[in-house]
Amino acid sequence: MYIQQGVSQLLVAINKMDTVNWSQTRYDDIVVKLGTFLKQAGYKDSDVSYIPCSGLGGENLTKAVTEPKLAEWYKGSTLLEQIGTLSTISFTDLDNF
User: Residue 19: phi, psi to the nearest 5?
Assistant: First the structure.
């Protein structure tokens, strides 16, 4: 049995979005630039999720978006919801490792 090693899924918390006034342009720029880099590193788009947030203000971490400027364009999950969607391996899968 072959077990894939390494990180196969990524959640990218794009923090400090409050400091750029919840700019969708800035978010999209980060997604494109980081996405290009991650593709070169072997990640598929489907294995990477991007979540705009503000750690200091707690926006979009555990509760749905309340910031009007972010709500205008972001309709996705919170960081915590996205963490809940990650697939896991069981430790019994590692017995043959």
Answer: -75, -15
66-88 residue pLDDT tens: 999 999 999 999 999 999 998 87
Whether 49 and 81 have beta carbons less than 8 Å apart is answered as no
Pair 49, 86: CB distance under 8 Å: no
Supply angle C-alpha 58, 49, 14, rounded to 5. Answer: 40
Could you give phi then psi for residue 60, rounded to 5 degrees? 65, 25
Contact criterion met (CB below 8 Å) for 18 and 65: no
- Tell me the per-residue pLDDT of 25-77, one tens digit each, with 9 for 90 and over: 999 999 999 999 999 999 999 999 999 999 999 999 999 999 999 999 999 99
* Polymer length in residues for the chain: 97
Distance separating alpha carbons of residues 81 and 13, to the nearest angstrom: 12
